[in-house]
Structure formats: C-alpha cells, structure tokens
Predict the 3D structure of the following.
Amino acid sequence: MREFVIYCDGEEFPSSRIESLEKAMAGFVKTDTPLAVEIVFVDGEEIQRLNREMRDTDKVTDVLSFPSLDGIKGKAICGAEYPFDVDEEGNLLIGSIAVCCDRAREQAEEYGHSYERELHYLLVHGIMHCLGYDHMTDEDKREMREKEEYVLQKLGITRE
C-alpha cells in the first residue's frame, strides 16, 4: 500500500519522479489512510489567472497550493475524520497544487541551480502547504524550510 499518492498530469514530471517523491513523503505524516495530492503544471497565463481569482493577486507566481483540510499541521491524520475527502481509491485528498513551469525555469536560472531541483522544491513546498505548513512568520518559515529540506535530502536533491 502506498502511504502518499500523487496525481499528476502531463509529461513535465515523469512517473519515476512521482514514485520517488511519493516514497520520500511516506512516513512524513502519521496517518491511517493514504494521503493524496493533485499536481497540475500550467503556463504563466494560467497561474496568473488562478492567482488573481483565488488570491486577488494579479501576477505570475511559481506555485499555488489549495489545501483541502484545516488544522492538520504536525498532527496524526485519521481518515474517518474526513469521510467526504476520501477518493474512490480510499486516499485522503489533502489538496491541489499548480506549478508554473515557465517561472520554475526562470527561477532555476536566477538561483543558479537545475530546473529539476527547482521543480522538486516547488512540489515539496506545495505539499507542505497542503499539510498545513506556512511561512508567514520567521519561525513558521524556518520550520517549513526544515521540513522541505528533509524531504529534498531523502530525494537526493541538494543545493547545487
């Protein structure tokens, strides 16, 4: 049984990478139900539209997360508490993530590392938001970055 399931469209992120990320996320959260997240890859125009409509911010961004569960940060998750968020396969949907590939490529160049590293970072960042982590305060940001780096290290993705 998979502990963490990623639903992903397109060819931007091949199935081998999806499986690696699923394995890296396994055991991250104590849960009695497999957790699932949906990932879609979009262009700059689409992410700007989503950002404008969902966050009232009319600009291109790199990643948007749409968590479906509240108050789960750092807690054990019991699927029975969320009966309406379980999909046909019995996975508990924790949210959806939209990643702008154009912006990820720009940022990879800007930060001087690979597109692969940037894409993995944005996906892990989005997943952390779906798990209730945020970066509104310095303390929250530090905690979230530690969690992100932990998962990226499990993937063998380091700062280049």
Summary: The beta strands are 4-8, 35-42, 63-67, 92-100.
